[in-house]
Amino acid sequence: MSSSGGLAKALSVVAVLLAVVALAINFVVPGPQGAAGTDGTNGTAGADGTDGTPGATGATGATGATGAQGPAGPAGADGTNGTHCWDLNQNGVPDVATEDLNGDAVVDVFDCAFPAVARSGMTMSGSLSARYVPPSSNPYFLVAGSYPMPLPAGTSVPTLEYRPGGTTTGTCPGIGMAAPGTLCIYAYNTNNIASIDFGGSVSGNSYLYGFSLDVFPTVGTNPGWIIANWAYTVP
């Protein structure tokens, strides 16, 4: 019984060793590669990422070359005709009765020659200024103005109207304007001026060409001045 039991034990040990050797062989020697598996399905697309911070503005590029000159535009319309120098009422018609200034029964450029005679209804204007410096043997000073063309012979001496401060009336309605036959003196800048009056220009026919004024200071021992606009309309 003992010898048979020993044999069985020995066989068991041998079996175990063989099992161990077989197991080791399985770990050491790899088996053949298996077949590739099928691809899996695509995953769901992820959400878009947030926008990045805008980059800094780039530098301004160089100015481009000047383009070619464009074609010339169409010619403009003709302007209106000017006024003839003899056409005093600007009606475009030679009016012998009022525009034949040289009396040759023809209205032409020879009626434009200076000095032409001022016509009724024409308004002429200009500026005048003077300064009074005391002491003076005469308590007044003179200031004068000339008409751009003489008044017609027989014209009455103008009515003088002095407007201190440039104030207006019905016969002197504003700078550059005057009622017919009125010489308006718009004194818009004065100092120490009391009044004005016609000087020697009303003698003979001198008043047909202009005027002179005697200007009287308020205080004869103080300096003064007058700066004014004059206007006269031929009656």
Characteristic key phrases:
alpha+beta
Which class of secondary structure composition applies to the elements?
A: alpha+beta
Portion of residues within helices: 10-25%
Identify low-pLDDT runs: none
What's the multimeric state? single chain
TL;DR?
The protein is an alpha+beta fold and about 240 residues long. It has helices at about 1-30, 95-100, and strands at about 125-130, 140-145, 160-165, 180-190, 195-200, 210-215, 225-235.
Structure commentary:
This protein has 235 residues and is α+β, with helices and mostly antiparallel strands. Among the domains are: 83-113, no CATH class; 123-233, no CATH class. The chain has 2 helices and 7 strands. The chain is rod-shaped and about 190 Å long. The mean pLDDT is 86.
Helix-strand blueprint:
Blueprint: H1 2-28, H2 96-99, E1 123-132, E2 141-146, E3 159-164, E4 182-191, E5 193-198, E6 210-217, E7 224-233
Parallel strand pairs: 3-4
Antiparallel strand pairs: 1-7, 2-6, 4-7, 5-6
